[in-house]
Amino acid sequence: MRAGTLLRGVLTPIISIALVFLLWDLIIRGFAVETFVAPSPGETLDALRENWSTLWPLALETIRETVYGFLVGAALGFALAVVMAQLRILQGLIYPVLIVSQAVPIVAIAAPLVILLGFGIAPKIVIVAWIVFFPVAVNVLDGLANVDRDLLSLARAMGGSRRRVFLHIRLPATVSPLYTGLKIGATYAVTGAVIGELVASTGSSLAGFQRAANSSLDTPAVWAAMLLMTVIGISWFLLVVGLEYLTTPWKHRAARRRLRFGAANDPRS
Amino acid sequence: MTTNRFHAIRLAALLTALALVATACGGSDEGSTSSSSAATDGAATTTSEPLAITLSYDWPTVDFEAVPIVVAQQKGWFAEQGVDVELIFPPDAASSAKVLATGDSDLALLTTTDIAFSVKSELPITSIGNYTMSNNWGLFTKPGTPVSIDGLKGKRISTYGDSWTKAMLPFVLDNAGLTNKDVEEVVVDWDLPLLLNGKIDVATNTTNFMLAGVRDETGEDPNYLLARDYGAPDVPVWVYAGNKAWLAEHADGAKGFLAAIAKATEWACANPEEATTLFGEAYPDSGYSFSYNRIGWTDTCRYMQDDAGQYFTQTDEQWTTLGEALKGIGELDTVADPSAYYTNEYLPAG
Question: Where does a domain end: B230, B245, B271?
């Protein structure tokens, strides 16, 4: 039963990605799209293989920027949400700024960030953190705002201190929304790192490679870099999903119980 | 009260959405301009329907390098030649060649390296005339900071990560007895603010854009050295190019285009103030000041004729030299026969 579920869990996304590749290939062939406009999956994978020795070290750098920025953004977003939930007046003051911060086009602030912070990893971390902290903050804030009122009343009636209520009721209630925010942030984080690389980088970068390949009309190499960026984004998302699975065992235990309970009450069983 | 407020919010949201939709639908299309809508003060001698030509620019937004095209439109010189030119803008700087190759444009303004890579990738395009006749690419420092070939070691040099810079910079470094390990190369999106803020020591660019940017911003000139004086090949940076299939079908259109451009270029270089004014009128929302455009265009003119005073004429030597330079940095495996890169077939007579 568990092996079957696991197989389904692994096979389904693989089939779905394979279908995307198939559709991509069909579009390129069906519409006779020239390679210099958009390469086929095969040409892109060939370019990825040919340029692998150049691309891999660059990808490692992009991963480093993504991870650091993600951790900073997630920590900031979480802390900000907790503080805002505790101090309503602060929430009233900060929440609109939070929304405004996301309405500002990130590319517009990327250049000033480079002037202020230099060409190293710092502006990239800030840009990734800027992208990640918003979904984390908003989701955690929602989680804190929707804690079961009866549970809170019960805890208070039983003499629970403010600190204990926070640690044992409010904080655990943020876990699910926190992971939702982290998963949204994970998919966008690599985009932030690439924007940072595009604005300014010392030496080589994945975005720089892509720009140079584009300048040389080497479209398969451009798409190879794009594919690698996508893989980094997906891997980071999967890592967060894995982390969620490991750190919230009660969620899948509850799901299994529901399944078992449902099966036992199924008239066909 | 609450219901009224809810209705008011819904109404406000609806009106906002409608306003956004109306703005999106009614916004002016700044992505292209056509001579058919341009005011003309010259008499059109062709009475038949003009040949519609689409020209893809070399940059996603318009700048002073479009002055000859604008002048030819505004003065009616395209119409005199029986052509009607629409300028379109590619999504990024490298896409103009692709737009031309797919036939989405008939002609294009491209860099010479675009042509070299197009031949490598077998794109069906060819260069039909030089835009500039020599290499105005160089190394720049901010006003008040001297630049010298001997002082490059250890400097932070910005590039755009483009193939032209990749091809040219090694010549200059080699001339200085350096390699790329002796300098810190920074790939940037826009060099001017970084140069003026002292975040980079040296910027690489062409004189027309850097002089215009620095002088317009600070009122002073940057210091610079031209790469061609320090070992880099003196080859043109930009060319007019055509789609091969379109050229085969519309040879007269291509000739007419270049004839009008020749007239417009000559006039615009002799009258930079008026030419810049015409450009400003055609593109009032370009984002550049009159002074920026005038400085940039005036400097561009310095490189548009060869020693014999000729416009456009290409040579085997320029293409072979460029090809060898690109081969030298590993961007090309082989240098094709010069005829693969260009033709002078459509140049105006005389």
Answer: B230
